[in-house]
């Protein structure tokens, strides 16, 4: 698959999944090298490294990766080199947590649905409007200066991702994070230039895309995880998304990674394998490349979906269970598929 100057060896990619295992300065650790290295050697066409914050207050937890300091860039460089050296393509997903910020990590005493206060090492979340996410701290409504600062952070993180040697850049624009919060009337109640009708709600997401493109080389591809619909009355609709996607194409987005129903925990959430592929035809008609993820466990599901319904597939949890999922899905004689170091296993 070709995305700008990048040639990908195949269309099954590791879906970005937070490991909550950064060092105390937000940099990748030995865990990340082992985890991503195994999956890169396991035959995925691209490794999308987990949501990596553009600034300290845009992390979800204290265990998140970041890309705002030299220490972080240096550690990401080792990770990107490792992924490339074993035959995959290194990509990183940038993250802006917004109101889904400053919570616990899954295995600590607090968990992801519990706020961590500044007294316990947390921070004040920022969002378009002071509407809390499901029991987390009430966010502070972003001022024009906050918005400017965050857009600057986005551009710096994109530049740092390039310096670290990543070959594709992703953005967590869905799942109820800041990009999605500005887009959805259910999270954005602003009455200034950044909220209200669709045009105003699009302003922040499109400014983020412009900031990404300003910091990221023209020859390298940009992938945005995009919510197609909130599946809730009054939320983002597929008509809104068509406008968003057309505008993102003009601003230099190469592929949208689609999902739906993830703004708030109460939203209906598609759980059937490949359910979100039903939204792809409308976006493909606009000339946009598409990918999706969701409950894929079997090779036949991959082969049904790609390239008929979507241009690429991201696989998440199945690859946590099995780093060699992509090699197994490829099938064929082991000597043609598996790394030569493993041939004596067959
Ligand atoms: C442990 C875990 C961490 C995740 N972290 C992220 C993330 O950092 N960024 C993101 O866009 N999605 C994240 N997701 C969602 C996955 O990328 C994926 O879209 C979702 O799990 C559905 O695909 P699957 O059924 O193949 O796992 C995460 C999912 C899991 C299970």
N-to-C series of helices and strands:
EEEHEEHEEEHEHHEHEHEHEHHH
Task: Identify every distinct bound molecule in the structure, by name, code or SMILES.
Answer: flavin mononucleotide
Q: Just give the CATH class.
A: Alpha Beta
Q: What's the structural domain tally?
A: 1
Total strand segments: 13
- CATH fold-level topology: TIM Barrel
Determine the fraction of residues in helical runs and give it as a percent range: 25-40%
Model regions low in confidence, pLDDT < 50 over at least 5 residues: none
First CA to last CA: what distance? 30 Å
GO molecular function: FMN binding; NADP binding; NADPH dehydrogenase activity
Keywords: Flavoprotein, FMN, NADP, Oxidoreductase
InterPro entries: Aldolase_TIM (IPR013785), OxRdtase_FMN_N (IPR001155), YqjM-like (IPR044152)
Domain NADH:flavin oxidoreductase/NADH oxidase N-terminal: 2-332
Summary, kept brief:
Helix content is 33%, strand content 15%. It has helices at 30-41, 70-85, 144-163, 178-183, 198-215, 238-250, 280-285, 299-305, 317-321, 325-330, 334-337, and strands at 2-3, 6-7, 12-14, 46-53, 65-66, 90-95, 126-127, 140-141, 168-172, 222-227, 255-259, 289-293, 312-315.
